[in-house]
Amino acid sequence: MIYIPVTSTDVYHNFALEYYLMSEKRFREPVFLLWSTTPTVMLGKYQDATTELNLANVKRYGVHVARRYSGGGTIYTDQGGCQFTLIYPDEHTEIDFSVGLRLIKTALNQIGIQAANDSRNDLVVAGRKVSGSAQYVTPGYKLHHGSLLFDSNLATMAAVLKVDPVKLKAKRIASVHQRTINLKEQQPNWSAQEFKDYLRQAVVSLQQAETYQLTPADEARILGISSQRFANPDFIYGKRSRLAHTGKRYFQGGGLARISYSLDNQRLTAVHLSGDFFSNLDTGRFEQALVGTKYDRSAVLKIIDAQLAITPIMGISANQLTGLIFD
Amino acid sequence: MLKEIHMPKLSPKSDDYFFGEWIKKPGESVKQGDVLFEVETDKVISQVESEEDGILKEQKVATGDTTKVGDLVATIEVSDH
C-alpha cells in the first residue's frame, strides 16, 4: 500500500487528487489518503443541490458545496472530522465495500474505538452512524471513500442538510442530529487532529504502507483538474443534477410520458418533461410554466391544462400528465 | 447485425439501478472496453463498458430512469464478419 499525505483542506483540490490518482497516476497497488476539509457539504454525483441543501444556511455559515464522482447521499464535513480514501486496482465490476470497511474498522478498533459495520455499509458505534461510504468504479479501478465524524459541528450539519420529513417519520427518527454521533464521545481527551494522526498511524502500520510525496508536477495537474471539474459551478449545481421524483407511464394511443421534478417548500423547483409522445409542444416553456407552482393537484392541473390548450399532446390529457406528478 | 445491450448485475443487494448518463452517443463508434454509460446503485457509481465493437444505434433509457438488471438499455450495430 502507498500512503500519500494530504495537507490541503480544500475539498475541490482533494477530490481532484482522488480523480488524478485513479484516472491518470494509476498506481498498481492500493493508495490510502486521510484528509479533512473546511466546512463543506458533498453531494452525490446525481443529486440535486436545491433538493438536498438549505442553501440559505449554506450561505449564512460559509459552507462550501462540492459534488463527488461517487454515488449516495449528501454529507457535511469539517475539520472536526476526516475523510478516508482507498483507491485500488480491481477488475471486478461487482460492488464490494468490504475491503475498505475492514481496513478502517480494524484501524479504529486498534485505537480503541469499537466500530462495527451495518447493513448500509456505514460504520456505527453503539448503533449510531460515525462513518458513511461511497464508491466510484471505473474499468480496472475502484475508489472507496468515506467520512468519519470525530468532533464535527452537528448543529451546522443539521442546519445545512435537508431531510425528507416523510422518510424521517417513516423511520421514526427525529433529526439528522440524532442519527449521527461524534467519535469524541468515545475518546473525549483527543483532539480531532490527534484522532486523525492515530488513525493514520494505525492504517500505515497495519498495511506497512510506504509514503509517496506529491511532486510539483502532480500538484500542477491536480490544480488543473480541480478548476476544470470539481470547482466548476456547472458541475456542482448544473445539468447533471438528479431531479428528486419521477412519474412515468405509457398511455395507450399517446405513448410514453415522463415527468421528473424537484420540490422545495411544497413548490415545484425544477421540472423535466420527456417521452416518445407526438406533439409540437415547447417542452422548455411547459417546464418553465410549472416551476414555482404550489405542489397541489388542482394548481398543477390548471397550468398543464393551459399549456396543452396552446399545444396539445396527441392521446394524452392534462389530467393524465398531472397524474404523473401526484399518483 | 444488431446486438442488444442489457443492464448487467453489479450489486449483490439490489436489481434496481438509477440510470446515470450516457458516455457514448447514438452513431458513435464503440470498441470493446469503452465506457458506454454510468449507473448508480447502493451508493456506488459504476461505469459500464462495451463488450462489442460497433456503432451505438439506439439508447433505450435516459438519465433518471430506474432500470432493472437484464433490461434492454441500448443496441449496437456490429460487423457480421
TrEMBL record, chain A:
Coiled coil: none
Entries under InterPro entries matching the protein: aa-tRNA-synth_II/BPL/LPL (IPR045864), BPL_LPL_catalytic (IPR004143), Lipoate_protein_ligase_C (IPR019491), LipoylTrfase_LipoateP_Ligase (IPR004562)
SUPFAM superfamilies recorded: Class II aaRS and biotin synthetases, SufE/NifU
Top-level taxon: Bacteria
Biological process terms in GO annotation: protein lipoylation
PROSITE patterns tied to this protein: BPL_LPL_CATALYTIC (PS51733)
Keywords from the named record: ATP-binding, Ligase, Nucleotide-binding
Annotated organism of origin: Lentilactobacillus farraginis DSM 18382 = JCM 14108
Catalyzed reactions per annotation: L-lysyl-[lipoyl-carrier protein] + (R)-lipoate + ATP = N(6)-[(R)-lipoyl]-L-lysyl-[lipoyl-carrier protein] + AMP + diphosphate + H(+)
Name of this chain's protein: lipoate--protein ligase
EC nos: 6.3.1.20
Pathway: Protein modification; protein lipoylation via exogenous pathway; protein N(6)-(lipoyl)lysine from lipoate: step 1/2; Protein modification; protein lipoylation via exogenous pathway; protein N(6)-(lipoyl)lysine from lipoate: step 2/2
NCBIfam families in the cross-refs: lipoyltrans (TIGR00545)
From TrEMBL, chain B:
Cofactor(s) the protein needs: (R)-lipoate
Tagged with keyword Zinc-finger: no
Domain of life: Bacteria
Any one GO CC term of the record: cytoplasm
Acyltransferase keyword on record: yes
CDD domains named among the record's database cross-references: lipoyl_domain (cd06849)
Single GO molecular function: lipoic acid binding
Domain Lipoyl-binding: 2-77
PROSITE patterns, per database record: BIOTINYL_LIPOYL, LIPOYL
Key words, A-Z: Acyltransferase, Lipoyl, Transferase
InterPro entries assigned: 2-oxoA_DH_lipoyl-BS, 2-oxoacid_DH_E2_comp, Biotin_lipoyl, Single_hybrid_motif
Protein name: Lipoyl-binding domain-containing protein
Organism this protein belongs to: Lentilactobacillus farraginis DSM 18382 = JCM 14108
